[in-house]
Amino acid sequence: MATTRDTKPTNSMTGDSGICPISALTPYNKWTIKVRVAFKSELNSYQRDGKKNDIFKMDLVDNSGDIRCTVYKDDAVRLYSQFEEGGVYYISRGSVKSIQKRYTSSNLKYEMVLNSSTTVEASPDDDLPYAAWNFTYLDRVHALPKDEVIDAVGIVEVGEVSTINTRAGKQLDKLEITLVDDSEAPIELTLWGQNAHKFKDSVSSQTIVGFKNLKVGEFMNKKQLSAGFDTRWEINPDVKKAKEIEAWVASKDSGELKTISQKVSYTSSGSTAFKNLQTVYDEELGRNGNYGSFWCNASITNIKHEGATLMYQACPSSTCQKKVEEQSGGFYCPKCDQTYPDFEYRYLLGMFIADHTASMFVSAFNDQGKIILGVPAEVVNESQKNDDIRFKRHFLEASFKTWNFRIFAKEDTYDGNTRVKYRIDEVKPLNLVQDSNRLIEEINKLM
């Protein structure tokens, strides 16, 4: 339980109130702080010297600033239940140490560690901010050094969650959004892993969002922003800067905002128009930041299956689907941090498609793979193990079928080599009436 006191704590070093502001903390003074818990992580564990240890982190805020706080081992277990995210607390005793500036957006030089001497008391007051913002105008990001950590606020255009393969061979979900503020300098922001899904599920386009702890990155000589494990966001934060952006948005019509968002050359361009494959190459869709989606009418000419990776063992949770690791007693999912008795196979296909103008190598994941092959991945896996003729027939029967594909094109760099990757996001059977009408419209435009 929290330590109780009859009166508020006092500290002669901090004046009559006895409360030390966060901005006055150093490794050398004794202190009692009154703070709001702006963020509280899960109680996690890590291995060191063969022993499991517990850990959790918090971001603490008062009227003078913010500071990152970490609690380890037995102290983490003791103190975890004493804090609630959003609550206000008096905290006494702990250690303050120097922190590398590149890992925090705080104005301070220090971080805090709570220990066995720490005491905590809940405060009934609600007079502290929920975040200590230090916003950077987006038109100034281009001048910032790589790895700088900033806060930003603006209106968002939210894309779709996609999956990439990391250099370590693991799959990672990502969400790309466009962030625009009243400096009218939109920038691409990427969220990863669980944050990608959390943001996609809770935030819609045209919403004003404040972000804390974004890292400045650079790709193809263009500055971008990336969310890390300690990035937080708040919808419509109650701060002056957000109000200014709200007024700016109100002064624009939807067409103007869309035009401003599209100014950023490295946000998703392209369209969902039908294109032949040679036109995609000629327009260099996917290159130099000019990435986006297109539809095409094409036939499958070859699905790589001899000696190729066709599928992976995935988490059986419908909300996860990440690759699992086989361990004694089951299959461990690092994302869910849970061991399951079984897994499911999910497709990871590579194939060549072609139309009358060109051919293209594309990838396809599970939902699209089931449509193309007509059976779930576990059926193909069973055939691969037990019936080679049936296994080859799956791919032979899927070849030279014609579909309408929606494909996403984007440049990717791996081991210093840059090339465009094409990913099938949607597969639809031919609709001869609609396809004919589309072709008639295209012919009429030429007349």
Distinctive features:
42% strand, alpha+beta, disordered N terminus, eight-stranded mixed beta sheet, five-stranded mixed barrel, 447 residues
Structure in a nutshell:
With 447 residues, the protein is an alpha+beta fold.
> Share of helix among residues?
10-25%
> Structural class of the secondary structure composition?
alpha+beta
- Average pLDDT works out at 83
Instruction: Report the C-alpha radius of gyration, rounded.
Output: 27 Å
In whole angstroms, the N-to-C terminal distance is 80 Å
Kindly state the number of beta strands.
Answer: 23
DSSP helix count? 9
| Major sheet description | 8 strands, mixed
| Uncertain spans | 1-16, 264-271
General form:
globular
Strand residues, percent = 35-45%
Detailed description of the structure:
With about 450 residues, the chain is an alpha+beta fold. It has nine helices and 23 strands. It has helices spanning about 75-80, 195-200, 240-250, 255-260, 275-280, 365-375, 375-385, 390-400, 430-445; strands at about 30-40, 45-50, 50-60, 65-70, 90, 95-100, 110-115, 120, 150-165, 170-180, 185-190, 205-220, 220-235, 270-275, 290-305, 310-315, 325, 330-335, 340, 345-355, 360-365, 400-415, 415-430. Strands 1, 2, 3, 4, 5, 6, 7 and 8 form an eight-stranded mixed sheet that branches. The chain has a five-stranded mixed barrel with strand order 9-10-11-13-12. Strand 18 and strand 19 (about 340) form a beta hairpin. Helix 7 packs across helix 8. The chain starts with about 30 loop residues before the first strand and ends with a helix. Mean pLDDT is about 85; it is low at about 1-15 and about 265-270.
